[in-house]
Design a protein that fits this description.
GO terms for molecular function: serine-type endopeptidase activity; signal peptidase activity. The protein has 178 residues and is mainly β. The chain has one helix at residues 57-68, and strands at residues 4-8, 23-27, 40-44, 77-84, 89-92, 100-101, 104-105, 122-125, 130-134, 156-157, 161-170. It is built from one helix and eleven strands, in the order βββαββββββββ. The strands form two sheets. The protein has a seven-stranded antiparallel beta sheet with strand order 1-2-11-3-4-9-10, with no helix packed on it. A four-stranded antiparallel beta sheet has the order 7-6-5-8, with no helix packed on it.
């Protein structure tokens, strides 16, 4: 098993933190029980953000090579920011339009310029083994808010977290630690 991997970003949902076309170096040594609020994570969205069906191993390997080379984005791997961890109450929004965690407004300097923290109202309690994830470019992000009415209510299983992006490897002009 690899302890690091590379993932291709195919959407604008995490701008300005990561951009479409970025290749992220992801450390895969994260303990799902030790996720922190504000942390970026790459996760397997099958069963929540993507259909649960699995491809044969050879197809998975070919798709992974295509993703590493930047020929295609993954259809079931996503990058988002952890907003709520087990035991948290996450809600939108206070009178200032800010997302609240346990009644405290979040400071979100990473939001896409001009985006509001959320146009969707929600009030969720994060159970054990789950996390509440949002994109930084909230106006275009498909994230936990988008799945409020679905089974699981937008909460992602913590054991589906693959790892933490630690750096942008490509393109060369954007190579930076995250």
């Amino acid at each position: 098993m690899w302890v690091v991997d590379v993932y291709y970003v195919g959407s604008t949902s995490m701008q300005p933190t990561v951009e479409p076309g970025d290749r992220l170096l992801v450390t895969k040594t994260l303990d799902p029980d030790e996720l922190d609020r504000g942390q970026l994570v790459v996760f397997d969205g099958r069963g929540s953000f993507a259909p649960l069906d699995e491809d044969p191993p050879l197809v998975n390997a070919a798709q992974q090579v295509g993703t590493w080379l930047g020929l295609r984005p993954s259809e079931d791997v996503f990058v988002k920011r952890v907003i709520g961890i087990p035991g948290d109450t996450v809600s939108c929004c206070n009178d200032d339009g800010r997302v609240l965690v346990n009644g405290e407004p979040l400071d979100e300097p990473y939001l896409y310029p001009g985006d509001s923290p959320s146009d969707t109202k929600f009030d969720v309690v994060v159970p054990e083994g789950r996390v509440w994830l949002l994109g930084d470019h909230r106006s275009v992000s498909v994230d936990s808010r988008s799945l409020l009415g679905a089974p699981g209510g937008g909460l992602v299983r913590a054991d589906r977290v693959i790892g933490e992006p630690t750096a942008v490897l490509w393109p060369l002009g954007r190579t930076d630690p995250l």
